[in-house]
Amino acid sequence: MLPLQQQLTGMLVGVLTAVVLFSTANAQHGGWGYSSDNGPATWPNNYPNWCNGQKQSPIDVQSKSAVQKSFPALNFKGFDTPPADAQMRIKNNGHAIQVDLLSKTGKTDNYQISGGGLPGTYNVLQFHFHWGSEHTVNGKRYDAEMHVVTWNSKYPTASAASTVTPDGFAVLSVLLEATSQTANPGMQNIVSQLSNVANKGMNYTYPTSFSVNSLFPADKANYWRYMGSLTTPKCNEVVVWTIFKTSLKISQDQINALKTSCYFNSAGDQDQQQLNNNYRTTNPLNGRTVFDSSNTSGVPQLAPTVLALVIAVLSSTALQL
Ligand SMILES: [Zn+2]
């Protein structure tokens, strides 16, 4: 070969090697997403430990198969009024819109959850949104879902907790439904800042923190509980899930804003893909139990058949008198 041909061949090999290495690195390190080439169907192969596991999330909650169980009340610390040194930062992480709950003084216990049958006291890290919802209920997919991610304070760090099966993390899930005629005030704290986080890597620090509780339904006593995983790679099977039965009602304008304001890509990327449909499809239960909290603020709930039986017994008793 002529020297020039050799040089060109060498360059071509170099470029091809770089492309292959980049593709491999992309698949192994944060290269997952929600498109056909890197989406949920590819995760079990690309992240066999854990995405290929038997206790994966999300699931379809079959309400009739859920087992009734009474749990003590859930306790929320810092959710109503933001702690004095709290700092909230919204960001586009390339997969979802997330709000980090930070502390100006480095505290990890500003926001906590406990009780509710949780195996410990959990520190809150962040909350983020998927649209549509990841969990479905009796096959129904909601417009969106909020995940509040927390880690068990009995472990030294969130990172350490993230590998501990089965109780390292607890995630609270709120299902969002675009059925309100008016904008939800809590959700407006998110929607109003979407233009500041349009692209991957962008973030915005709120000058004033808002109440996390403003993103929750009033009824936090009724929920489903099961043991599962993170819903994004590496899908660690370390999560105690709590899915509130009452959805948060937001407006159609608010869900439209989520669907159209942001991109999976960094600013300046050639092929901008709208950040939408960032949910994992549901996974088999594989024998797991979904519990149905039967907390009803002291009002006992009787299943219709039981109620009918009670009425029948009372009636027959009355007839005998
Ligand atoms: Zn999530």
TrEMBL record:
GO molecular function, one term: carbonate dehydratase activity
CC annotations in GO: plasma membrane
Signal peptide stretch: 1-27
Database matches in Pfam families: Carb_anhydrase
Annotated EC: 4.2.1.1
Needed co-factor(s): Zn(2+)
Catalytic reaction list: hydrogencarbonate + H(+) = CO2 + H2O
Domain Alpha-carbonic anhydrase, residue spans: 30-294
SUPFAM superfamilies, per the entry: Carbonic anhydrase
Keywords recorded for this protein, A-Z: Glycoprotein, Lyase, Metal-binding, Signal, Zinc
Organism superkingdom: Eukaryota
Transmembrane segments: none
Known function: Reversible hydration of carbon dioxide.
Protein name: Carbonic anhydrase
Organism: Branchiostoma floridae
Gene: LOC118426545
